Amino acid sequence: MSFCALLFSLAFASASQIPLTVHDRATEDQYHHFEPPIRHVAVIGAGPAGLQYAAVLRDEGFDVRLLDRAPGPGGNWLSTSAVPIKASFPNRAIKNGSYTPDVPDKLPLVQEYFEGDGGLSLEYRWREHWNPSPVWEHLTSNSAPFFTSLPETQYPADIEWALPQSAIRRHVRSYASAKGLNANDEESLHVTSYSTRVEYIHKAPSSHKWTLYLRRLSLTDNTRSQLRAEWWSEEVDAIVVAVGYDSTHVPNIPGLIEWAGRFPEQVYHSREYRRPEKLAGKNVLIIGASVSASEIARDLAPHVRSFSVSIRDHERTTYMQRRSLRRLPSNISHIPEIASFGTIPDDATGIQELDLHLLNGTTIRGFDEIILATGFVRSLPFLADYHNSTIKGREEPEVDVHPIITDGSHLRSLYWTGHYIPDPTLAFKVGRPWTLGTYHALLLARTWKGKARLPNEKLRWEGYEGPGGPSVFDGGFGTLGEEGLRFSLSFSTSSAVDMVLDSPPRHIALNRKLLVHLNTEALKFGGRLVAPWPVEGREKFVYYAEQAWEAGYTRSENFTRYENVPESEWNSEVPDVTWIPEEW
Ligand SMILES: Cc1cc2nc3c(=O)[nH]c(=O)nc-3n(C[C@H](O)[C@H](O)[C@H](O)COP(=O)(O)OP(=O)(O)OC[C@H]3O[C@@H](n4cnc5c(N)ncnc54)[C@H](O)[C@@H]3O)c2cc1C
Ligand SMILES: NC(=O)c1ccc[n+]([C@@H]2O[C@H](COP(=O)([O-])OP(=O)(O)OC[C@H]3O[C@@H](n4cnc5c(N)ncnc54)[C@H](OP(=O)(O)O)[C@@H]3O)[C@@H](O)[C@H]2O)c1
Ligand SMILES: *[C@@H]1O[C@H](CO)[C@@H](O)[C@H](O)[C@H]1NC(C)=O
Ligand SMILES: *[C@@H]1O[C@H](CO)[C@@H](O)[C@H](O)[C@H]1NC(C)=O
Ligand SMILES: *[C@@H]1O[C@H](CO)[C@@H](O)[C@H](O)[C@H]1NC(C)=O
Ligand SMILES: *[C@@H]1O[C@H](CO)[C@@H](O)[C@H](O)[C@H]1NC(C)=O
Ligand SMILES: *[C@@H]1O[C@H](CO)[C@@H](O)[C@H](O)[C@H]1NC(C)=O
């Protein structure tokens, strides 16, 4: 058994008891000390999460660099008519990442590209560099304004619950502007760098500094006839990663790759979907049964000639899965899972000639377009030093370097505070940025300033929650039940699915835990106290969830229970030295 697996099992065995090693522990140093002190911090990603990290860290006195490959702030909500480059069929290997990190031998370097250089158009280079958002024109939110909003930023007073994507776009950009972090804010030019893709981050074993290898693309003239790429590196003391999904998942259905390769305009991922008019009068097949599938189907309904959706046959266990099924238009044909795509006739002129073999033994044909609404993965190519794709599922083998990325379905080796356990100068987003973002940003700032304690590495491993970790879309409202389960990606591999179903609701109180921790540390070391979500906000949330998600989703007793979650159920791993009894 590895050292960390041993600690892991010990931690589980004695989760709520006073550890046997109290005496040693009381004398050893239980906390991490950041030395030399953290001054310079890079934030990767300027979505709703990254903007809050940058604003809070800067206001707390750090020298901040905010980097995003996109040309402005907004992240997922920087919606655009620019279409992401075609998803890879098959999926790129996770270890290869969603792009191949481009780090020249000698830095800095500048290179100019003209149309057609290297067989690529300038427009292709531009889209490949920034990976335009997957959000389509008529997308509306599946979360209401009061819990899809950033601090000190308003939506129009009479805005609807299902927010048009453009309203979220404006909201996030006005937060960025209010914080002086927008693309054209001259006062922040030393802070922000847009159109800047992080290619690689590295820390030498002997060093206290991280080196970021960066690549920025810019148009060199107004005629758009030339692109300039610049590569350079920067050194920082700490890094926050807030990058979201960066790659697509397509299933491994026999024959799919061949058809998608031959007729790329007719077989594509939901990330590339923009507007329904383009599909007017067509016969369309959507593969997948989750949010992208149902919402694209609703957008298409009035335009297409016919439409079908291929749904795998299994029980839908989360409210969002059930909601997606309910929201499919009533006149869409449901077809079973696809077993294989038939062989391509040599003289095929389009997918209209495709024979689709279904799992139930029937063969169908006659589609004009196929949209794969099959989800996303995290590949984070710039973390090449922390990838290990030989590790499968939930395995936790003994390793030299604790990986962060394995199969793309989750992040691992992270403490609940988002810190990479072996080196807490690297931290990741935790929880839902709208509701937890500023709390979490404050926690990172105070931890790196030495004003909030972080346990030492041994204790961090003891408190480790396992693969999956806290960096998921959850814990936002302090609700229990499904909201507390990790929101993992739907994968065709059974391992990732198991990961969702068999995980205990570990993050039930992430929101509460962050709050309690921040305030406990502030009372001890100084700093403003933070207020919890107002009860009224939580009541609105209950009402919304009942109406818009699922009846019986949550009730006031769930919140009452939330208020009273016993410590043993928070799964809090912050060692509370003050309660360890003295020898007497
Ligand atoms: C289609 C779709 C619809 C959604 N709808 C909802 C909804 O209705 N309600 C809701 O609450 N959530 C929704 N979400 C979830 C959404 O991810 C969150 O709302 C939110 O955007 C997450 O914020 P973030 O800052 O963590 O990440 P993001 O908003 O994804 O921002 C990440 C940023 O990191 C940048 N980045 C990535 N890699 C690099 C790199 N190597 N170098 C530099 N920059 C990089 C990206 O360019 C991006 O700007 C939706 C997601 C999708 C895909
Ligand atoms: N605001 C909005 O309205 C909106 C719109 C789009 C997306 N989003 C958000 O974006 C995120 C991603 O959503 P998503 O829907 O793109 O991805 P997703 O939730 O990961 O769903 C992927 C879907 O692909 C299906 N799938 C995979 N392989 C398949 C196969 N071989 N045959 C048939 N189906 C297959 C899965 O099936 P199983 O169900 O069988 O596992 C699942 O339904 C979510 O957070 C979502 O909330 C929000
Ligand atoms: C991964 O990258 C290597 C080297 O660039 C390449 O040979 C291989 O085909 C790639 N694999 C996938 C699945 O993308
Ligand atoms: C499906 O029903 C919707 C709503 O009644 C209607 O607008 C649309 O034309 C129908 N679409 C198809 C393809 O039958
Ligand atoms: C298989 O599914 C197709 C599409 O839904 C349907 O038309 C057909 O009747 C089904 N065949 C069997 C044997 O159930
Ligand atoms: C990657 O994981 C394997 C086990 O699957 C391990 O043997 C190997 O040492 C790991 N690589 C690194 C760099 O830690
Ligand atoms: C809310 O509380 C009820 C009654 O205690 C319980 O049955 C239900 O599962 C809870 N819902 C959630 C989402 O936790």
TrEMBL record:
Keywords: Oxidoreductase, Signal. It holds the Pfam family Pyr_redox_2. Residues 40-303 form the FAD/NAD(P)-binding domain. The keyword Oxidoreductase applies. Residues 1-15 form the signal peptide. InterPro entries: Auxin_biosynth/cation_transpt (IPR050982), FAD/NAD-bd_sf (IPR036188), FAD/NAD-binding_dom (IPR023753). GO terms for molecular function: flavin adenine dinucleotide binding; monooxygenase activity. The keyword Glycoprotein does not apply. Gene3D superfamilies: FAD/NAD(P)-binding domain (3.50.50.60). PANTHER family: FLAVIN-BINDING MONOOXYGENASE-LIKE PROTEIN (AFU_ORTHOLOGUE AFUA_4G09220), FLAVIN-CONTAINING MONOOXYGENASE. This is FAD/NAD(P)-binding domain-containing protein. It comes from Exidia glandulosa HHB12029. The lineage of its organism: Eukaryota, Fungi, Dikarya, Basidiomycota, Agaricomycotina.
